[in-house]
Amino acid sequence: MADPKWQISGQYMESCNCDYLCPCIYTNPQGAATFDNCTASLVFRIDKGQSDGVSLDGLGFALLVRSGRVMADGDWVLGCVVDERADDAQRTALSAIVSGEAGGTPGMIRSRLVSDFRGVEFRPIDFRMAGTERSVTIPGVLSFEVAGVIPRHGGDEPICIDNVSHPAGRRLALARARSYRVEGFGLDLEMIGKGNNGHFAPFAWAA
User: Fold this and answer.
1) Backbone angles phi, psi at 18, to 5 degrees
2) Is residue 125 part of a domain?
3) pLDDT tens digits, 63-81
4) Does residue 2 lie in a domain region?
5) pLDDT at 155
C-alpha cells in the first residue's frame, strides 16, 4: 500500500447547540437534533502532520457546520478556518485537507453531506487544554469552553463513549459546554451556561 500523501494527528474538541448528550452520537446519526438545526464546531490541534513533505506540526484548523434536523440527511453548510500562523505552503496544503479537496475524512464530509461550502478563512486559533477542560478562541468566528463529565466515583478521567461513528474518532470523551459562541460564516449563535453538548479526543487522519 502506498504511503499517504498527507497525515495529521493530535487533539480535537467540539461543541454543538444540541442538549447533552447529542442524539447524533447514539443514533448513527439518524436521530433528530434538539433544535431545527444543529450548529456544530470541531476544532483540531495538529501535533504531528505533513502533506507531500510540508510539515504541519503545531498548526490548527476548525470546521463549522450547520445541518438540518437530521445530520445524516446532508444539506450541510460548511465553513473552514486554518491557523493564520501557517506559511504559504502550509496554507495551501492545509486548506486542501480541511476543505475536502485532498480526500480523507474531510473529503467524505464535503462530497456526501455538504451543499453550501462557504470557504476557508485564515485566523489565529487559540486551542487550550487543562485537565478535563478544553477551550478555543478564533476571533470573529468562534469561541467555546467545555468541561469533561466526571463519573460519580470521581477520578481524573471523563466518561467516554466507545465505538461511535464520528469523523474525529471512535472513542469520545463526554463534555458539557459552559459557553458556545459562533459568529463566522453566517452561523450566528450564542449559548451561555446552557450545558449543551461537547466532546474531545485524540484524532488521526490520513489520505
Assistant:
1) -70, 150
2) yes
3) 999 999 999 999 999 999 9
4) no
5) 84
**Domain count along the chain:** 1
Model's pTM, two decimal places?
0.96
| Alpha-carbon distance values, 174 to 58, 95, 148, 157, 188 (Å) | 25, 29, 6, 10, 24
Identify the three-state secondary structure at position 26: helix
How many Cα atoms within 13 Å fall on the side-chain side of residue 27? 14
In a domain, 71, yes or no: yes
The stretches in the chain having pLDDT less than 50 are: none
Place of cell 458556545: 180
Q: Kind and range of the H or E element at 168?
A: none
List the domain range (segments joined by +) for residue 53: 7-206
CB neighbour list of residue 160: distance below 8 Å, 6 or more residues apart: 171, 172, 173, 174
Position 1 in a domain: no
Q: Tens digit of pLDDT for each residue in 1-14?
A: 578 999 999 999 99
